[in-house]
Amino acid sequence: MENDTVSRNFIEQIIDKDLAEGHCETVHTRFPPEPNGYLHIGHAKSILLNYGLAQEYGGLFNMRFDDTNPTKEKAEFVESIKADIKWLGADWEDRLYFASDYFGQMYEAAVKLIKKGKAYVSDLSAEQMREYRGTLTEAGKDDPSRERSVEENLRFFEEMKDGKYQDGEKVLRAKIDMASPNMNMRDPVIYRVAHMTHQNTGDTWCIYPMYDFAHPIEDAIEGITHSICTLEFEDHRPLYDWVVRELEYEKPPKQIEFAKLYLTNVVTGKRYIKKLVEDGIVDGWDDPRLVSIAALRRRGFTPESIKMFVELCGISKSNSSVDYAMLEYCIREDLKLKRARVMAVLDPIKVIIDNYPEDETEYFEVTNNMENEALGTRKVPFTRELYIDREDFMEEPPKKYFRMFPGNEVRLMHAYFVKCESFIKDENGRVVEIHCTYDPASKGGNSPDGRKVKGTIHWVSAKYAKKATVRLYENIVDEELGVYNEDGSLNLNPNSLTVLDQCYVEPSLEKAEAYDSFQFVRQGYFCVDAKDSTPEAMVFNRIVSLKSSYKLPSVQ
Ligand code: ATP
Ligand code: MG
Predict the structure, then answer these.
(1) Atom of ligand 1 nearest to the CA of 36
(2) How far is the CA of 454 from the centre of ligand 1 (A)?
(3) Each residue's pLDDT expressed in tens, for the chain with a length of 556 residues
(4) Alpha carbon of 33 to ligand 2 centroid (Å)
(5) Is the dihedral of CA 284, 287, 289, 295 positive or negative?
(6) Under CATH, domain 270-335 is a member of which superfamily?
(7) Which residue is closest in CA terms to ligand 1's atom 27?
């Protein structure tokens, strides 16, 4: 392996060993979502892990919809899932599969088990089945149908397939061990009758395989070598192995479990997200406060930032939560050198430069990103009337306030030194206009005579700036305040969304399109909202502020 010096995660160690010992010759992974909702950051971890392993070992990665359960699945989710995975950059090439395409082979596999005396048709109701199952401390009881003959089982199973029975009337069970300490091995149901229309196979089938039976078959059919899933399936692994063994696959796939990714201060539960959408608290599954992949994309996260995040999280066998601030760290790192740094005023006050000619426009050539010259330059217009941010002015400044206040000189970024001479208030005592004079000799923001100013503030030209709406986000829930109320509902942060609709941005942003992002100097990273922004009324989402107290544990 290339990176021998870097410590290898436990999955890589298993794969290394399998390759070395000849259990497999190549690596073939898959991502198997159920098309029953939108993918979220946790799924991104699984996608990038599976795809990353295939790439690392020069193997293959399959995309497979696990659509064996016809009740919950919808075609619209199939499309959103595909789009999200493509956006993340995981490439399944021409290997897009649907588990439902294997229903025929799964049926044959069940017949094979029956013929081997390893499966039987049961007449027990769901309730009886529970009674017979026993408990963690007590062995189960044998199903009265357990010793049915192969012929009888074959006939009943065929009749199940042919629609002779109602839902729940008969099931097919694997014949394993009713006394197993592992409840999953106590003759689990592997096929059930369900008269339902399936989104892919229509009414062809009225029996459907159970997940634990179907999944190993799907993996084996596709030649998956390492079937990676999350920890809750650990107890199901003996059943996975049993299915693969009894069906005598030549190259049995191996199941490996890892811990799910949990994030603090976010909502991932589908039930809760659905409620937030229905109650109009968020504006859809892609509301930028959520962590579905669609939401992260809309907020302005990049595939690279998510990849960095997932890599920093690492792969583990024990469940834990990762701080949301780490995700923010990753997007800041990713955008730092990639995006232009532009000026935007979120809470404007007008500034008039009294000694600047009234109809003049000067264009300053500004470097887009001082740390990355490759991003080039742009021209920023300067005029007599400007806007600055309200928090950059104070009538009576405290000590160490170096921005604008009466009598103080500051630098207007990239432009001139200006000195505040006076200001005007409205009838409510709110400052509405600031009057300044500028020093023509400080052009470009450079000191003409060694004179120093301590504050540099951003601005936009009142004549040329574009009006915009900016949305600021905070976490929708706060772990420290408690995520849930006593009644089980979410304890929502009332400040999770702030809409500023009087903002001004530089005219250079005029041509920005959906998902384009920028650093607004001194304020953070912002992204053009894909749903609501129009060329006439631009809307920007704050991806993340510039500063954070967050320190990455390993990179400080
Ligand atoms: P549900 O079972 O409620 O549908 P799910 O999140 O398990 O939700 P799947 O479509 O079954 O949805 O998941 C697809 C794959 O993503 C599975 O392999 C699953 O283990 C993995 N996965 C799901 N959630 C996470 C998570 N939080 N972290 C890492 N992997 C996850
Ligand atoms: Mg699932």
Answers:
(1) 4
(2) 52
(3) 445 556 899 999 999 999 999 999 999 999 999 998 899 999 999 999 999 999 999 999 999 999 998 876 677 889 999 999 999 999 999 999 999 999 999 999 999 999 999 999 999 999 999 999 999 999 999 999 999 999 999 999 999 999 999 999 999 999 999 999 999 999 999 999 999 999 899 999 999 999 999 999 999 999 999 999 999 999 999 999 999 999 999 999 999 999 999 999 998 888 888 889 999 999 999 999 999 999 999 999 999 999 999 999 999 999 889 999 999 999 999 999 999 999 999 999 999 999 999 999 999 999 999 999 999 999 999 999 999 999 999 999 999 999 999 999 999 999 999 999 999 999 999 999 999 999 999 999 999 999 999 999 999 999 999 999 999 999 999 888 899 999 988 999 999 999 999 999 999 999 999 999 999 999 999 999 999 999 999 999 999 999 876 676 654 3
(4) 7
(5) positive
(6) Glutamyl-trna Synthetase; Domain 2 (1.10.1160.10)
(7) 42
Q: How far is the CA of 34 from the centre of ligand 2 (A)?
A: 6
**What ranges do the domains of the chain cover?**
9-98+210-262, 103-207, 270-335, 344-458, 467-544
Determine contact, residues 39/64, Cβ cutoff 8 Å: no
The finding on whether 264 has its CB within 6 A of some atom of ligand 1 is no
- Ligand 1 neighbour 45 (Cβ under 6 A): yes
Q: How many residues would you count in the chain?
A: 556
Distances in whole angstroms, Cα of residue 195 to Cα of each of 126, 305, 485, 522: 17, 45, 40, 60
Does the Cβ of 261 fall within 6 Å of ligand 1?
Answer: yes
Ligand nearest the Cα of residue 291 is 1
Which class does domain 103-207 fall in? Answer: alpha beta
CB 69 near ligand 1, within 6 Å: no
Strand partners for 460: 387
Q: Which atom of ligand 1 is nearest to the CA of 72?
A: 4
- Considering the domain delimited by 344-458, tell me its CATH architecture: Beta Barrel (2.40)
CATH topology (fold) of 467-544: Ribosomal Protein L25; Chain P (2.40.240)
Distances (CA, A) of 401 to 96, 342, 405, 436: 60, 23, 9, 18
Q: Is the CB of 456 under 6 A from ligand 1?
A: no
Does ligand 1 lie within 6 Å of residue 32's CB atom?
yes
What is the CATH topology of the domain spanning 9-98+210-262?
Rossmann fold (3.40.50)
What DSSP character marks residue 199?
T
